[in-house]
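Record type: monomer structure entry
Structure origin: computed from sequence
Chain ID: A
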Amino acid sequence: MAENIKKRLNELRGEILHHNDLYYNDDSPEITDYQYDQLMLELKRIEKENPQLITADSPTQRVGGIAKRTAGILVRHDVPMLSLQDVFSKEEVDEFVSSVLSNMPDCEFVVEEKIDGLSLSLRYYNGILKTAVTRGDGIVEGEDVTANALNLHGVKKVLMDKLPYLEVRGEVYMPREAFEKVNSEQAANDKKLFANPRNCAAGTLRQLDSSVIKKRGLSLFAFNLQKAKGRIFVKHDETLQYFKDQGIPVIHDYVLCKTKEDVWKAIENIAARRGHLPYDIDGAVVKVNTLAQREQLGSTSKVPRWAVAYKYPPEEKDTKLLNINLSVGRTGRITPTAVFEPVRLCGTTVERATLHNQDFIDTLDIRIGDIVRVYKSGEIIPKIRCVLKERRTADLKPFIIGNECPVCGAPAVRDENTADVRCTNSSCPAQLEGRLVNFVGRNAMDIKGFGEKYIKKLIDDKYLGDIADIYYLHKYREELIEKGLIGKEKNTDKLLEKIEESKKNAPWRLLSGLGIQNIGKAAAKSLTIHFQTIDALAGAEQEDIEQVADMGGISAKMIFEFFRSGENAAVLEKLKKAGVNMAEKATADKESNNLNGRTFVLTGTLPMWSRTEAAAAIENAGGRISSSVSPKTDYVVAGENAGSKLVKAQKLAIKILSEDELKILLAQ
């Protein structure tokens, strides 16, 4: 039993450190806040029951991530930027309030919205902003982002009151309207969408170009006084009023409370208006109001004892399912999508959610006309939680995807050993559109400006019948300009030029764009490094393909069968005749480099390199990057907060490299 507890403890710590790294240092979380909170609660419970197993490097004993050298230099904290103790129930809130009141009967509490952003400390000397510092590790140091902070809405460069020193802690956030605008621009430019406003704000604040901050509309709310010289403040609400008088925005609608009943009512009121706020919140903060009482209560190494953060459960709404639409993707896969009466969730209106496949529909027993419960996974992606069957009427019938393609009417069949139903007609218009969109996308041929609307027009007017036809559009330049299918002369010539440039792309881009099932960017790179040419891959036997790193039997079979199709062979021949590159450029360095074909996994934060820089250096030396650790991994490059990937590598006895050791290996 003791060994099982230790094993689970190590698993939790590794997993949490991995997610801390993604959240704090890469601004790209893989799980929702709620899922993260459940992991942390389990870890805390085990450590509470087994205090002898608590270690100084446990995630429960540390604050946030680490400071990064991105937009500026590292600066030592004058006052620690601690996190807050999270609580998840009314009982825990009551316990906190009662505990404080038992020692301080006259204590007041302030209840505030917990903005979902990132912390920033503003340091004013004689009323002038001199330094802005991110949270970093929360204890020792953060990152100097002063130049960027000056472009935040709400940050005052000069204060009316010229105190010798004033340090204000605030939360940087992105209003929902600004976030939607940024993602619309990202989509228009065929760039990766940001997962949520918090991630966008974090990534933007670290930009080297400070003008991006202003363009993206980042803002700041002040929520705490860190330190002041030249004036004595007595209460927290007094400091908030002082900030307002200086022109610094503060948390909206904070409430003073005396009892635990008042505190809980304030938390419920914030929850009621949560969906209508112009920015994201993920909870409510309860703070002791009197600053001297805060001093008396003190802090642990990680959290203050004078405040807690109540985290709201994921928001859910009930609505009526109006219809189930069927769409066909580039591989012929038929995807059912629920269409329901619009509801507001996490500040946006949603009316659609994917139903994945027939098995998912059958498991939930979803029927058109049902009342369903909808939520947002990670407060981003709408999903259906369940069906309220007690509200179902007797006339509703089970939904079946059927055996006909909803677009072309061809037979649709279920894949062997999967839940997917596919259209069998490779000439299906919906499949063609999907294949073309994938082919020109940034993870394939990356033909910028070739949007979905142009593809639809060119298919409708019979200019595109397969992916190779893209490289013959130049023959119809005058017709395209006359019909305005891509725009006027300048726009048409610009796109034709981009198409011509794409012929020189590395062959992995072409392979990724062919639309072979299970073959994306990473797999395409591995295959072209191994086989060097598309022709060599096309002629390979299935067992030869399986020898490539991380290439399983199913994927190898998909590739083998793809190149045995006469239709696909004809498309490949058209691409060759058009002059599309199908071979890796042979270099002496690549042929002799001992990294050729070696698999690397990057984890944690490296001292000097970003992950992108390290990955590029490895790939340029002939190595390949994988996102997961497996027995086929040759090296794991581990930085700080390496997390679960490092733990797995150690279990598999895979060689672990530091950044310096990687550089030595690259130099050999």
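Annotation 1: The longest helix spans residues 2-25.
Annotation 2: The domain at 429-578 is CATH 1.10.150.20 (DNA polymerase; domain 1).
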